[in-house]
Amino acid sequence: MSTTTRAAVVESGGAPFTLADVELDEPGPGEALVRMVATGLCHTDLGVASGGLPFPLPGVLGHEGAGVAEAVGPNVTGVAPGDHVVLSFTSCGGCHNCRDGHPAYCATWLPLNLIGGRRADGASTISRDGAPLGGHFFGQSSFAERALVDERSLVKVDPDVPLESIAPLGCGVQTGVGAVWNVLKPRAGSTLVVLGAGAVGLSAVMAAALTPAARVIAVDRVGERLSLAKELGATHTVNAGEADVDDAIAQLTDGQGADGVIETTGSVAVLRKGVDALAVRGTIVVVGAPPFGTEVALDVNGLLSGKRIVGLTLGDSETQTVIPALVQLVKEGRLPLHRLISTYPFADIDQAVRDMSAGKTIKPVLTF
CA 324, CA 327: separation in Å to the nearest integer? Predict the structure, then answer.
């Protein structure tokens, strides 16, 4: 039987979120029905809601969910009713990258998560008054009181950790953490630079503070965010509105440059600054996503000193391993994620959007 639930629907590109009753299919093979407790709001949700990506609208977004499994479909073995779960991206599980432990680079990642709006077989998961809606967003569409979720999007977590404190792990946090742990892997004495002190950037700062890196330099234009970065583990900060970033990094590194840079802003001008700030054999991780087709000009000769540019999706994380580890760090107070979170009742989703867009909050989390 289908389940009726309340969801935030985007009717068309640029339209606000509107609460409406929708119907969810009963869980099919490899799916579970989850009662949502909390869900993070991410810039990717806002980009799709604006019409910037070809997701089918009207539709239901949301991809940083956390809740309690209520029912499971056939062949589901990883979770059972009553389990606490964090929701992340989905993947096919059978392609080369999935089998190799890199599901964020699944061969069918785009249609399954970002632009398809339906199950892999083309069937809709959400409808309203008998008409299908865009859904299956990151295998979850968690802007709703209940969500029909792919098993590969589900991660069973410790029930003693409040779900509203760990909902953002499914996307933004594991992206920032993975840039440090899975790509840069700093050695003792390394210098890391984080460009942008939003949710992803500050997650990278917290992750870097748990490594042997000697310098962690946070760069932003907002003084309050730079102060927070210092409290979360940055050893130095640079206000890009007051100083030239490359000059400041050169001074902080005795002219050597940064061993690792994480670019989270999506600005090609900032990306170019990051590449130029690299040390010999340094690596920049590109996380920020500008509009499709955006290009950046680089000094090719400047790359010949062994500099590397690495694009990154969702931290290149294997979620069943990484997310429980992050939950444990949150529980122990070693990953103070609560410093980034502001909670809003689900009905106030548009206020959360406004506050996020205005920079008043770093990571809005909607609660049910």
Answer: 5
By residue count, the chain amounts to: 368
Of 264, 63, 90, the closest CA to residue 167 belongs to 63
d(CA 104, CA 228): 29
pTM: 0.95
* Tokens representing residue 344 in the block: 């809003």
- pLDDT at residue 330 greater than cutoff 90: yes
**Residue 292 has what pLDDT?**
81
Output phi, psi for 171, to 5 deg: -135, -80
Report how far residue 23's alpha carbon sits from residue 95's, in angstroms, rounded to the nearest whole number.
32
The mean pLDDT value for 343-364 works out to 96
Query: Tokens 């440059």 label which residue?
Result: 257
Give the per-residue pLDDT at 108: 97
Nearest Cα neighbor of 245 from 265, 231, 230 is 265
Torsion-angle region of residue 266: left (phi > 0), alpha (psi -120 to 50) or beta?
A: left
300, with CB counted inside 10 A (0-12, 13-18, 19+), is exposed
Write out 55-78 in H/E/C secondary structure: CCCCEECCCCEEEEEEEECCCCCC
Q: Are 2 and 23 in contact (CB under 8 A)?
A: yes
Which pLDDT score is estimated for 188? 97
pLDDT digits (tens, 9 = 90+) for 245-284: 999 999 999 999 999 999 999 999 999 999 999 999 999 9
